[in-house]
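Recall the central idea of this unit: under ordinary conditions, the amino acid sequence of a chain determines the structure it adopts. In this exercise we apply that idea directly, starting from the sequence alone.
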Amino acid sequence: MKLAYVVHEMGNYVAVYKILPVDSASSNGSIFEEVQRITTRPGSMKAGVFTGYSKAAEIQLTADASVLLASNRGYGPHSGNVVGYKVSTTDGTLDAGIPTDVLDKYPRGMELDTTDSSGNYLLVAGQSGSTLRRWKVKSDGALEKTNVKVQGPPNPTTVAFAKI
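Accordingly, the structure predicted from this sequence is:
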């Protein structure tokens, strides 16, 4: 089954779409069929109810497609967060998600560290605190803090890795 995961910044949700064969397109010509819409603000705040400032920023999918990560700017008890969702092995839908406070009000960009052989580390660019922090991605989607933190560059927004 082919799937697409799309973060909706202003709506604070992730949508899961099944990609249909072109000859199976719906009456409006779409080859995308939405199968799930899930909030990026799990817990007591349901999609569309939270009235404070919050915008989803980015999503990442682990190499084995077992965990999807979504960042939220301005949502959390003290700062923004990253939500880790377990991906169903049967239909690709997402579980309720585990939010982790990533110690920056606006976690903007994030990237899974493809230079690490385990593939289980996430680098988060903290836009408001001008930090880069490395987190271990656990199998349930939770993030575990590591001792890797870089202060600066000012207001980072995007992260990319390369092996040269």
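The longest strand covers residues 143-151.
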